[in-house]
Amino acid sequence: MGRQIMKKTLLALLTAVLLFAQGWPSGPSPYREADRKLFAEIEKNNQLIESLEYLCDMIGPRLTGSDKLKRANQWTLEKFQAYGLENAHLESWSIGHGWSRGTAAGRIVEPAAQRLAISSAGWSPSTNGPVRGRVVYVKAEKPEEMEKYKGQLKGTVILTTEPAKVPSDQRAADRPPNAIAALAQERGEDLNIPPAERIKLRRQINEIYQKEGVAAVLRDSSKEHGLFNMGGVGGSNYDLGLIPTAYATHEDYALLWRLLEHKQPLEVEVDIHNEITSEPVEVYNTVAEIPGGEKANEVVIIGAHLDSWDLGEGATDNATGSSVALEVARAIRTSGLKPERTLRFILFSGEEQGLNGSRAYVKAHQSEMDKVQGVVIHDTGTGRVKSFALQNRYDLREAMDKLVEPLREVGLEELSLRWMGGSDHVPFAEVGVPAFMGIQDPAEYRKTHHSQSDTLDKIKREELVQGAKVVAALAWNLSADPEKLPRKEMEASSQSTE
Ligand SMILES: [Zn+2]
Question: What secondary structure letter does DSSP report for 376?
Fold first, then answer.
């Protein structure tokens, strides 16, 4: 045996052993041909940028309950129809109140006149004209910790956290397992309190603020360079918050903190105007399908959220994912491939206030959840999709490894077992459905999301094209898989909430 031949034989043997060890039959992946067809179609003819331009520049930010989001629902519905999808429709659910942002102004009055840049939190009530108040730091995670502030907070403007460490541009992998825990960590809160419990406690504390006559609450945006963060104070029913609440830029929040440390009188003025509807508002998820063949009653869901916060354009959060879902629909339809399982595209609303559109969907379709083969969500901006999170589902690893093998050609790396919270796959995963979110390159996502800087110019075209290829191929392979992925047996208590 010549040396060269021996080397080759050894290599072949080694490869065979490795493939055998992975439980992978020799020969090419049965999905490769279809996947390559999709890669080529998306590379050549994608309409990602056109969709993004329309959603961001022609429609603009898409706050849940707003007319703009309704327009976006209608536009995406028509787009799915134009791409030849079937059963395109809007599914409605309702929120307690629609809310629209007015003006918010702030200034430091004492010890010296200074700026105070603020943006009202979502569903915050207005102040009754400009209100001036002493600034007080209130440190309380539980109602009983409010005892010591009794009778001292009338007319005050309160800070409830120390300033965050900024930049908080951690890699996704370093962050705690869900968005609420991440926020709690940023605020230095006790991570041992479960998220649902923390929401309840915060509500109780807010009730005490209200009783004590607190004038306003200021939050740290925890972002660099004057960028605002955003969050809602209306709870899951979209009620009006109890106390006028605003985000200050991190710079100004840190200034307030330094002034507080001087223990001199510190006074600010805030003036917040918003509008809220008195009646509940219908909101919508956009749904459309490519019907399956033999297994048409089983479904693969490709999703993203169409709603956004309203300071920027909601470009990377999450017009990117919405455009990817549209593109995957277009590419599969145009390529002439016929899926075995039905491909269902869903653009959710209400994600930013707590995954409410996907929760409403799972609730309305509870009896069909056994028929969902898998859910694929794209929701971390413009960066490349490098992996998918298996949400602690070790049992899915082998099956999923086979499904993603052809995706290595377009840069997908090892799958991750980790639990990822914070997007619309969670309500599905919580009822045992295999549901996956892409793990993406940060590409400034955490710097700009929810801020006035979440705008179209942040888009990196090539990276988003890669993401569309990965999502298209995974969705296709899930639909073609001869095996049905196993559900997870659910324990009595739910695993995580957002
Ligand atoms: Zn998002």
Answer: E
Q: Which of 252, 245, 264 is nearest to 107 (CA)?
A: 252
Q: Which domains occur in the chain, in start order?
A: 28-96+280-480 (3.40.630.10), 104-276 (3.50.30.30)
Ion ligand 1 nearby residues (CB, 5 A): 317-318, 379
Q: How far apart are the CA of 238 and the centre of ligand 1, in A?
A: 18
Q: Which residue has the higher pLDDT, 12 or 203?
A: 203
Q: Which residue has the higher pLDDT, 167 or 263?
A: 263
Helix axes 397-404, 461-480, angle to 10 degrees: 120
**Ligand 1 center to residue 208 CA distance, Å?**
32
CA dihedral of 416, 422, 423, 424, whole degrees rounded to 10: 110
φ and ψ of 241, to 5 deg = -60, 165
CA dihedral 423, 177, 186, 149 (to 10 degrees): 90
199-208 burial, b for 16+ CB within 10 Å, e for fewer? bebbeebbeb
Q: What is the pTM of this model?
A: 0.89
Task: Tell me the pLDDT band of 219, cut-offs 50, 70 and 90.
Answer: very high
Tokens in use for 33? Answer: 């041909």
CA 161 to ligand 1 center in whole angstroms = 24
Task: State the distance from the centre of ligand 1 to the C-alpha of 67, rounded, in angstroms.
Answer: 19
